[in-house]
Amino acid sequence: MIANARMYSVTPAAAVAWRALLGRALAQAGLDWEVIEHAAPALLADLWRRDDLGCVLMCGYPFAKAGERARRLGGPALQIVAAPLPAPVEFGGRPLYWTELVVRGEGPIRRPEHIRGGRIGYTAADSQSGYQAPRHWLARTLGLQLEIGVASTEATLVGPLITPRRVVEAVLAGEVDVGPVDAYALALLRAHEAALVAPLRTIARTVATALPLFVASPAVAEQELAALRAALLDLARCAEAVSDLQCLLLAGFAIPPRADYDALLEPDLASTSP
User: Fold this and answer.
1) What CATH superfamily is the domain 2-88+211-270?
2) Mean pLDDT calculated for residue range 70-96
3) Model's pTM, two decimal places?
């Protein structure tokens, strides 16, 4: 089985810290699994399709879609391992996040309504923070009906940009006027590469929904899953993990309910924080 935290390895320091935390948790759980690399531009969807997932960070939307498909076909579903608990106060001590719609601080877009007619970046069609959440927000707030591959006179979608960092770079380079950035990823960038994101300004935030989570393939045994969960939860009390947790702006981990992710498939439900 494999472990991976590519989703939030948004800086070199974060990547090192994630590898250390995962390695520590696996050792504590007595699991001889491999912490692998899956760096961009490799697609996360290719990683999530593997059948040897042991402890891999996955976006909530494709996790919910995979669960829906498993229920429809009567097959086994991906298992919830745990979700990160961001430490910054705005996350409220819960495994939640949102999308920040960012623009160049000195650019022409000053208010949300100025988005109309502009170029809007997206990361990937199966991304909650990089496409689904901002798409629903634009529809509810501005009446913009945008869909990948469908031409619109109201605004232009630009992508796939794949990663939050690439979204930031595209906004700063003037390739897009507005970019959706995962709030936790942006917090990490602000902590480790403040100069990169300093020129950005947030003009809107989507509602908070369930944070990406670590998942395991159905093949992972219940005993292994229990040991891994216990090890991840124990990291918050582990002195040797303090520096890595601080690097990642984490208070620890939690076991979220599956219903929080199922809600992402219902835009009306997803408009209320779980």
Assistant:
1) Periplasmic binding protein-like II (3.40.190.10)
2) 97
3) 0.95
